[in-house]
Amino acid sequence: MHKAADQLGRLLRTLFLCDYFSNEEFRREIHTLLNRGESVHQLQRAIYYGRLAVERGRRRDEIRAISGSHALLTNIVIAWNTLKMQAVVDGWRKAKHPIEDAWIRRMGPVHFANVNFRGLISFGVERYAGALLQPAAKRRAAGG
Questions:
Q1: What does the alpha-carbon distance between residue 89 and residue 84 come to, in Å, rounded to a whole number?
Q2: Which H helix or E strand runs over 27?
Q3: Which of 26, 63, 103, 122 has a Cα at 20 to 30 A from 7?
Q4: What residue ranges do the domains of the chain occupy?
Q5: How far apart are alpha carbons 97 and 75 in whole angstroms?
């Protein structure tokens, strides 16, 4: 079974490479996807560019909290940009401004020059504290 799966993987990789080298549109699409992934990494580095203090990030729950917070902030920036970009596109279409779908498809919501990462952000999480902050005994019982 292992050898068959290995051979199937080699066949699929060969087909991918044939498409990649012979189909310029496919190659362009792959490069776009890779650039989007790198853009997300640049955004994540912009959100947090420093180092963690020596005493932080040692325990599993701290690592989970830090990683989850980082992912949450990254997703918030992407969602905000998507919302604003969609509002512009909707406004242009409503005003009968010509806009190409192919151009929109190539845009990504990962830019961050418009974001002030060093400001003060306040989230009203007080009413959700019970659901967000589980007691330690309950977390241990759940396997966390």
A1: 9
A2: helix 24-47
A3: 26
A4: 2-141
A5: 30
Angstrom distance (rounded) from CA 121 to CA 27? 41
Which tokens is 31 given? 């490069």
Question: How many whole angstroms separate alpha carbon 57 and alpha carbon 99?
Answer: 47
Q: Which residue has the tokens 């990462």?
A: 117
Largest CA distance in the chain: 59
Encode pLDDT of 47-58 as tens digits: 887 676 767 667
- Which residue type does 49 have? Y
What is the C-alpha separation between 102 and 32, in angstroms, rounded?
A: 13
Q: Which residues contact 57 (CB under 8 A, 6 or more apart)?
A: 63, 66
What long-range pairs does 131-139 form, CB within 8 A, spacing at least 24? 139/61
Secondary structure (3-state) at 12: helix
- The confidence score (pLDDT) of residue 99 equals 84
Structure tokens at 129: 């504290």
Q: Token pair of 120, please?
A: 């003060």
- DSSP letter for 50, please: S
